[in-house]
Amino acid sequence: MSYPFTYKSKFETLHHEAEQLMNKRLKLQQSVDEAKRKGEEIYESVDKWLIEAGKAIEEADEFIQGEEQAKKRCFVGLCPDLKTRYLLSKKAEKKALAIDKLVNEGDHDPISFRPRILQIVASSVYHREALNSRVLFLKQVMDALRDPNLNKIGVHGMGGVGKTTLAKEVHRQAIEEKLFDEVVMVAVNQTPELRRIQSEVADVLGLTFDVEEYLEELIDYMRDAKDSELPPIATEVAKKCAGLPLLLLTVATDLRNRESYAWNDKLKQLSVFDNEEIYAKVHSVLESSYNDLPGNEVKSFFLLCGLLGLSNIPIRSLLKYVMGLSLFKHISTVKEARNKVYTLIDTLKAKCLLIDGDKYGFVKIHDVVRDTALLIASREQHAFIGTRSGSELMKWPNKDSARISLPYCDIEDLPEGWECPKAELLLLFTEVLSLGIPDLFFKGIRNLEVVDFTGMRFVSLPSSLAFLSNLHTLCLHRCQLDDIAIIGDLKQLRVLSFANSYIVELPDK
Question: pTM for the whole thing?
Answer without folding.
Answer: 0.51
